[in-house]
Amino acid sequence: MGQIGAASLINAQGDKFAKSHSSRPDFDGAKARWLAVVVAWITIVFLSSSNLAAKIADSVFYYVVVRGIETTWGHPPSWLRFGAEKGVHIFLFLVLGFLLVSYCQKTGHPRAGYAVAAGVLIAMSSEALQALVPGRDPNMRDVVINCTGVSIGAVACVWRAQP
């Protein structure tokens, strides 16, 4: 059997397996790919709570912002670091909110409230996880910032979907 024949046989077998083992007949490959993207982003969000992520963020901040500003204007103000750190929170959770709403829309659950609720739960879990990581501290302010990011992402997704 040639490579093309083997590939189409594998593809046909995979489709047959997916159809026979799916608990929902309307759950197709596109929805599975969206779910994989959402799960991958949630993994990134949780990994951002680790010490390694904090070290990487500090290094990037130092080399990009501090060294660039020091050579131009002198020592950077403290609010700049705060803004950079919280900007990362907003970005991570804005994307999460957008992806969760997109996934809900793709799977036939157009209510953004479910996605926002899931995002809020993930935001709280991410901060709670920091209590288990030495050198990290959970902060209620970060939960509020994370939830704001989820809400902005959800609103952006709903707004994008409007005709």
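Second entry:
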Amino acid sequence: MTDEFHIEEINPDEIPSGMGREYWDVSDFIENECYEEKYYNGAERLIPAEIRDEIKSIDFSKIRKDNRTNSNADIRSILLPKNWKKGQDVGEFKGSELDFFKNKVGMEVQFRQATNLIHDVLKLQKGYSKGKLVAGIIITFDEKVGIYNQAGQDSSFQNLDRWIREFRDVITFEIPLWSIGIKP
């Protein structure tokens, strides 16, 4: 896969603090055969090229979609050998450990309830606000994958985007975030 645009690297220290409500930058959905992606708050410029390239090199078509346990195990088996660390704590609250962490980029992998996406965004935002993260990544399924709970509200790439747009005016959302939705 080749990028159709050039991504300019910038120093995160040059970005003014307090960009949350005054600064709102969202890319269009970008789609390929295996996943969809969307960038918020300049993530395409702030996530180091090494991290972006590493994530884009994942063959998401090989992630098992039969159940969440297998999906998580597949992601873990790809990231841990690439020196992603588990359990980096970004807050002083229960459940503030990140799924994965590398080079000041936090990653959450969410294949469960949509409400867990909210927790993941807030956790990443907390790490960013405390200076522990320069950006965050959330990997979830496209809503067409169809692993749904009884209420039909499992996490999805589309639910994440709807939630961020709905609450961006009431919750400070400054973290540069890259969301990825794995296709069926």
